[in-house]
């Protein structure tokens, strides 16, 4: 289950950011995950409480926002929404597309409680 190691890396990054800002607690962690990221959001959500024990983010809420799959057509130049198994241009139907989003795993934002 690589979601466990992703949670560990995420919490290391969160702890570094919290330390840089002088926070004493993390309230909320928001991730943006695309369907092509190779991550199961539900498994990540389940692994999080186990990994967060004893960290600055132990009581933080983990919010996962889905990212849509978007492609840019190299034939007509349109940027359109696509599906995982059909990365076709939504404007002209061409298969010559470049993925511009949908494979990301991004720490979108944090809510921190700052030390007094």
Automatic annotation (TrEMBL):
Short name of any one Pfam family annotated for the protein: HypA
Main function: Involved in the maturation of [NiFe] hydrogenases. Required for nickel insertion into the metal center of the hydrogenase.
Signal peptide: none
Protein's organism: Allochromatium warmingii (Chromatium warmingii)
Keywords on record: Metal-binding, Nickel, Zinc
Binding positions (Zn(2+)): 73, 76, 89, 92
Name of the protein this chain belongs to: Hydrogenase maturation factor HypA
Lineage: Bacteria, Pseudomonadati, Pseudomonadota, Gammaproteobacteria, Chromatiales
Domain of life: Bacteria
This protein's record includes keyword Zinc: yes
Annotated residues for binding of Ni(2+): 2
One example of a Gene Ontology biological process annotation: protein maturation
GO MF annotation list: nickel cation binding; zinc ion binding
Family to which this protein belongs: Belongs to the HypA/HybF family.
């Amino acid at each position: 289950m690589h979601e466990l190691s992703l949670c560990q890396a995420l919490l290391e990054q969160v702890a570094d950011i919290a330390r840089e800002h002088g926070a004493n607690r993390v309230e909320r962690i928001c991730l943006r995950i695309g369907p092509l990221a190779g991550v199961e959001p539900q498994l990540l959500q389940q692994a999080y409480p186990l990994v967060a024990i004893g960290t600055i983010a132990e009581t933080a809420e983990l919010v996962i926002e889905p990212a849509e799959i978007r492609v840019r057509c190299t034939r007509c130049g349109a940027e359109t929404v696509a599906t995982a198994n059909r990365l076709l241009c939504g404007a002209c139907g061409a298969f010559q597309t470049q993925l511009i989003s949908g494979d990301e795993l991004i720490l979108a934002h944090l809510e921190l409680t700052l030390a007094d």
